[in-house]
């Protein structure tokens, strides 16, 4: 069992942080890599990109939003409980390079994934501007951590309840207008990453995105996570999860994420009914 | 024994009872139900106890077949299973999934005039008998040598190496990337051909012998080969299989409803998705299911789809019946369960609706031309033969390749042009010192028993190395 040593309910109680004992993974993990977690015997395998690792303590941190049965089940796990299986680190680490001016854009729980990458980009000497967004103020996570991890932080909310009123792309556009941006890293919901990639394409600024397709094994043996990048089929679990945002077929990814929407809906509703009853 | 002698070789082979096709096609219970004690002894009595047994030469791990069959005939089942264990640690698996017709039974002298002795059925019987009635007493083990061996991958070849080396007194750790050990035995071969409880018990047998099994260990990611050496392992065996699915590379292949057989079977077998929503992993349930390919994996996929309630299941294969690589028995079982065969047919593109869900595929009829390098007649498209086939679920079972995850992290190991590991066919030695490899990662996708045979040779070579040096 992989024990939970710290648990925090962030943002309206629907975004949960778990710090988990996994010394082998903590020792090896690099920014951009993910793990696969399975809560119990009958559970499914869910991929989550690590928000942090602590090699000395032997722990990894994940942050997830409750969106379905499995994440609802994860939410019931308290400190001292654990996951039956945690597998990783998986995927390729982020390619880190000193480039100069870099903009990191995060949306929703994507900010958690962006955090270690932003920190690493700054540590190697980049001038990092960070733009994070959420639907509303209550859903904004890791503001102070992101501030510490970057040279400049800008915050936006869709409803204007905090920071800039509007989408991250509005703020990004201003940054791009200033010129000299060498790299944009965008991690968040697929429509956000698509919008960022479309914007940066017109400025010809290289853009990295981290994709989140459906996965089973996470080791390249099934192809469930296949995505089209530059017209070629890639497996996000071994070839990614990060790709050149200008090459990704986002519409296909959004479509494929809907593969099990009926099954997922029923499963989640049944679980919630059962939980309410107890 | 004298009155039985007259029967030897002349009596008809005893077929194993099995569930009726109409019943079994909708459940996941094992198809053949096994011999009774009386049936096993009757079948065992058909063995001629040859002085130079051809059957043994046909067995890649050289089980003393007349020896254990003789003990079954005498009613000494405890003795029989212990006799098998000296050569084969996985008899309950082998009795079920080996292609005996081209191995041991293919060389049985009784089979020259009549039907061969049912060696596989007898091996299965005695392994099942031991599990259900046995004392649990373990075979003897050599004194501890203090040498540590890591086995990467817990499929048939890895488990064979582990079983051999633990009995020779070495300390063995098996490292598995999935959350359950067994490799293709748990994620690939379905419950109705090989119950997972039986695989778990065979692995448990190895653990009782002292093998340490670690799951969730992805070699190449969680730990590298060089780090394993740093941890004190003196030899490493790689039995990681050929787990990279091949696709057809046709337009529309990423539509929802097109899965690799690896994904489909992993969901069904390892994740038990056939029990969804009692378990959390879903699996697509098609009405008109098409399986592309005609190997054992294709048969397993088609029969699984039928059990998940498909209205019809079609095997679509570009060559003819003669070239189908699946075992005759598997093809026969599939046909009995109502699976249709569309031979000399090849898809050209997949068609979906506005939601990106598969609705059909375009196919071409084929004819066979001259034999190719593999000796099989090459299929050639017939011009103007295009036709449409309705389907909402396509399972691609056209083979698999070498997964580069481990080999990419080990640049100092020689690979062939297809990415498989180069290993000496006699010893399993790779070009990296202290590392052996065998099974599908060396040969490409083959059979369970060939992987076990490779494991046996490598285990002998590793033992020699640990005793005498490289």
Overall description:
The complex is a heterodimer of chains A (278) and B (470). Chain A has 2 domains: 2-90, Beta Barrel (Elongation Factor Tu (Ef-tu), domain 3); 101-257, Nucleotide-binding domain of ferredoxin-NADP reductase (FNR) module (Rossmann fold, 3-Layer(aba) Sandwich). Chain A is 31% helix and 32% strand. Chain A has 9 helices and 17 strands. Chain A is globular. Chain A starts with a strand and ends with a helix. Chain B has 470 residues and is of the alpha/beta class. Chain B is 34% helix and 16% strand. A 5-stranded parallel β-sheet of chain B has the order 3-2-1-4-16. Chain B has a 5-stranded parallel β-sheet with strand order 6-14-7-8-9. The model of chain B is unreliable at 1-6 (pLDDT under 50). The interface between A and B is large, with 41 and 40 residues.
Protein traits:
heterodimer, A: 278 residues, alpha/beta, Elongation Factor Tu (Ef-tu), domain 3, Rossmann fold, 2 domains, seven-stranded mixed β-sheet, globular, B: 470 residues, Fumarate Reductase Iron-sulfur Protein, Chain B, domain 2, FAD/NAD(P)-binding domain, five-stranded parallel β-sheet, 16 strands, oxidoreductase activity (chain A)
Brief overview, please?
The complex is a heterodimer of chains A (278) and B (470). Chain A has 278 residues and is of the alpha/beta class.
Topology at a glance:
The complex is a heterodimer of chains A (278) and B (470).
Chain A: E1 2-10, E2 15-21, H1 23-28, E3 34-38, E4 46-49, E5 52-54, E6 59-65, H2 69-76, E7 82-83, E8 85-90, E9 101-107, H3 110-123, E10 127-134, H4 143-149, E11 152-157, E12 164-165, H5 168-177, E13 181-187, H6 190-203, E14 207-210, E15 226-229, E16 232-235, H7 236-239, E17 242-244, H8 250-256, H9 261-277
Parallel strand pairs in A: 9-10, 9-13, 10-11, 11-12, 13-14
Antiparallel strand pairs in A: 1-2, 1-7, 2-6, 3-4, 3-8, 5-6, 14-17, 15-16
Helix pairs in contact in A: 2-9, 3-4, 5-6
Chain B: H1 2-5, H2 21-24, H3 37-44, H4 54-57, H5 65-73, H6 77-85, H7 91-97, H8 110-113, H9 119-133, E1 148-152, H10 156-167, E2 171-175, H11 184-187, H12 196-209, E3 212-214, H13 225-230, E4 235-238, E5 244-245, E6 258-260, H14 261-270, E7 288-292, H15 296-307, E8 312-316, H16 328-336, E9 340-342, E10 345-352, E11 358-371, E12 377-381, E13 387-390, E14 393-396, E15 400-401, H17 404-408, E16 435-437, H18 440-443, H19 448-468
Parallel strand pairs in B: 1-2, 1-4, 2-3, 4-16, 6-14, 7-8, 7-14, 8-9
Antiparallel strand pairs in B: 5-15, 10-11, 11-12, 11-13
Helix pairs in contact in B: 3-5, 3-9, 5-6, 5-9, 6-9, 7-9, 10-19, 14-15
């Amino acid at each position: 069992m992989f024990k939970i040593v710290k648990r925090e309910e962030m943002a309206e109680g629907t975004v949960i942080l778990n710090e988990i004992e996994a010394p082998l993974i903590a020792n090896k993990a690099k920014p951009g890599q993910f793990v696969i977690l399975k809560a119990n015997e009958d559970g499914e395998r869910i991929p989550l990109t690590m928000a942090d690792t602590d090699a000395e303590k032997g722990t990894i941190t994940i942050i997830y939003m409750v969106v379905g049965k499995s994440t609802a089940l994860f939410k019931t796990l308290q400190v001292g409980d654990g996951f039956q299986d945690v597998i990783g680190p998986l995927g390729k680490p982020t390619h880190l390079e000193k480039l100069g001016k870099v903009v990191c854009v995060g949306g929703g729980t994507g900010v958690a994934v962006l955090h270690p990458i932003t920190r690493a980009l700054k540590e190697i000497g980049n001038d990092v501007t960070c733009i994070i967004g959420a639907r509303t103020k209550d859903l904004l996570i890791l503001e102070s951590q992101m501030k510490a991890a970057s040279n400049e932080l800008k915050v936006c909310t869709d409803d204007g309840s905090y920071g800039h009123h509007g989408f991250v792309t509005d703020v990004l556009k201003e940054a791009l207008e200033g010129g000299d941006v060498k790299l944009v890293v965008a991690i968040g919901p697929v429509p956000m990453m698509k919008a960022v990639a479309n914007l940066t394409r017109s400025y010809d600024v290289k853009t990295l995105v981290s994709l989140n397709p459906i996965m089973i094994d996470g080791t390249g043996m099934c192809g469930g996570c296949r995505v089209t990048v530059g017209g070629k089929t890639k497996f996000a679990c071994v070839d990614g999860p990060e790709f050149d945002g200008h090459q990704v077929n986002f519409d296909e990814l959004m479509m494929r994420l809907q593969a099990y929407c009926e099954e997922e809906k029923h499963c989640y509703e049944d679980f919630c009914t059962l939980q309410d009853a107890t | 024994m004298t009155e039985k002698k007259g029967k030897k070789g002349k009596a008809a082979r005893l077929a194993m009872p099995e569930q009726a096709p109409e019943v079994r096609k909708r459940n996941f219970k094992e198809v053949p139900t096994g011999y009774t004690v009386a049936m096993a002894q009757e079948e065992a009595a058909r063995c001629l106890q040859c002085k130079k047994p051809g059957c043994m030469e046909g067995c890649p791990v050289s089980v003393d077949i007349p020896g254990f069959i003789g003990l079954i005939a005498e009613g000494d089942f405890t003795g029989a299973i212990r006799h098998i264990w000296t050569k084969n640690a996985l008899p309950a698996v082998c009795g079920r999934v080996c292609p005996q017709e081209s191995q041991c039974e293919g060389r049985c002298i009784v089979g020259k005039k009549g039907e061969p002795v049912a060696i596989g059925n007898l091996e299965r019987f005695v392994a099942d008998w031991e599990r259900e009635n046995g004392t649990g007493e373990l075979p003897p083990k050599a004194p501890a040598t203090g040498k540590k061996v890591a086995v990467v991958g817990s499929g048939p070849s890895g488990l064979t190496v582990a079983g051999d080396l633990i009995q020779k007194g070495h300390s063995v750790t098996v490292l598995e990337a999935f959350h359950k050990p067994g490799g293709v035995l748990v994620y690939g071969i379905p419950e109705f051909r090989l119950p997972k409880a039986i695989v778990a018990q065979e692995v448990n047998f190895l653990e009782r012998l002292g093998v340490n099994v670690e799951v969730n260990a992805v070699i190449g990611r969680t730990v590298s080969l060089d780090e394993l050496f740093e941890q004190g392992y003196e030899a490493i065996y790689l039995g990681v299989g050929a787990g990279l699915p091949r696709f057809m590379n046709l337009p529309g292949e990423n539509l929802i409803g097109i899965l690799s057989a690896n994904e489909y079977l992993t969901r069904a077998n390892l994740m038990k998705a056939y029990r969804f929503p009692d378990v959390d992993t879903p699996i697509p349930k098609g009405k008109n299911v098409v399986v592309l390919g005609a190997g054992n994996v294709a048969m397993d996929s088609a029969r699984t789809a039928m059990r998940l309630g498909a209205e019809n299941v079609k095997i679509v294969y570009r060559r003819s019946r003669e070239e189908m690589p699946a075992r005759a028995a598997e093809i026969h079982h599939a046909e009995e369960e109502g699976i249709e065969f569309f031979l000399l047919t090849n898809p050209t593109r997949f068609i979906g609706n506005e939601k990106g869900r598969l609705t059909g595929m375009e196919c071409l009829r084929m004819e066979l031309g001259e034999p190719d390098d593999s000796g099989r007649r090459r299929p050639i498209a017939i011009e103007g033969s295009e036709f449409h086939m309705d389907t909402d679920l396509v399972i691609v079972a056209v083979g698999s390749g070498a997964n580069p995850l481990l080999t990419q992290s080990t640049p100092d190991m020689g690979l062939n042009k297809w990415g498989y590991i180069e290993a000496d066919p006699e010893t399993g030695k790779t070009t990296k010192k202290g590392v052996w490899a065998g099974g599908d990662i060396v040969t490409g996708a083959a059979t369970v028993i060939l992987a076990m045979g490779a494991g046996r040779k490598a285990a002998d070579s590793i033992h020699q190395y640990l005793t005498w040096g490289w």
